[in-house]
Amino acid sequence: MLFSQQPRVRLLPEVITPLEKLSRLGAAWGHQELYIKRDDVMPLGMGGNKVRSCEFWFGEALAANADLILVAGGLPSNQCRLVAATACKLGLECHILHNAEEPATRSGNQLLNQLMGVKQLFLGLMDEEKRGAALADYAASQRTLGRHPYIVGDPVVGALGYVNAALEIHAQSELKGYNISHIFIAGSMGPTEAGLLWGAALLGNAFTVHTPSVEYPTLKLRELISGICLGISAKLGFTPAVDPLSRLVAWDSFLGEGYDIPTPESIAAVYQLASLEGVFIETTYNAKLFAAAKDKVTGGAFSPEDGVCLVHTGGLPALFAQGDRFS
Questions:
Q1: CB atoms inside a 10 Å sphere around CB 116
Q2: What are the CB-based long-range contacts (under 8 Å, 24+) for 229-236?
Q3: Residues β-bridged to residue 71
Q4: Could you give phi then psi for residue 123, rounded to 5 degrees?
Q5: pLDDT at residue 221 in the model
Q6: In which residue ranges of the chain is pLDDT below 70?
Q7: pLDDT at 2
Q8: Given this model, what pLDDT does residue 206 score?
């Protein structure tokens, strides 16, 4: 088995997230073969792509006999929420380090973290590099107290969850007769995107992976994805017969003014998906994904028989802290 040598905790033991047709949105976009992979629909922590990553991160943590889970992120971090939820489910203590000041009121993911009772430390404003150094220092301080912390976030380990997701999407597509040949997913730090690409390569390039960037310039995004794909091959001790990057389409023209800054197109995408399909997306990741996908689909990038799938990576709790963006 592909993951037989990888420590893993089954967080979705009997659950395959839905693969659904977007009939009304497809009609609006002029493309009837439009689908959505609902990784927002999971039983743990309100769902999201990082649940798949947590299966492998926590597998490593338990194999290392960790008694403390550490994770760092911004205030609206979906990863922090899902790491905390996994720790709660498995009975492990979790500390979250935020590179931000403590908020006066809690909403969105912050509220959920509070409800789960995990420890949150607020480091003040700092960039990701300084946050990483602070996290390493904190882990060292916990070791001096006799703790055995595991730091969540290794991108290669996290990407394994979406290698599995690629196989899942392909199997669902075959079973339902959807003929999916193109997959869209938000381009960010790289693990989710790289996992899908590596899985697609394992299947003989079953589909092209489109990653409109929501965070980095195109070249940086490609570098991140490439490095993680190489890491997956090293981790699994296996290299696909085809180059994973041969079916990568990455671009940054829908990034707008930068990460977590909405654009008119992304705000419109939130309204359109909700009003036509009753499906909700937040503005940081999936709204820009849907806006970019709409541009490609309505621009005639695909033939009518091409199955196009948009991966909803979750993050819905963040939407409830973004109300001011819809004023």
A1: 16
A2: 229/194, 229/197, 229/198, 231/155, 231/156, 231/159, 232/156, 232/159, 232/160, 232/163, 232/194, 232/195, 232/198, 233/198, 234/156, 235/6, 235/156, 235/157, 235/160, 236/2, 236/3, 236/5, 236/6, 236/160
A3: 96
A4: -85, -10
A5: 98
A6: none
A7: 87
A8: 86
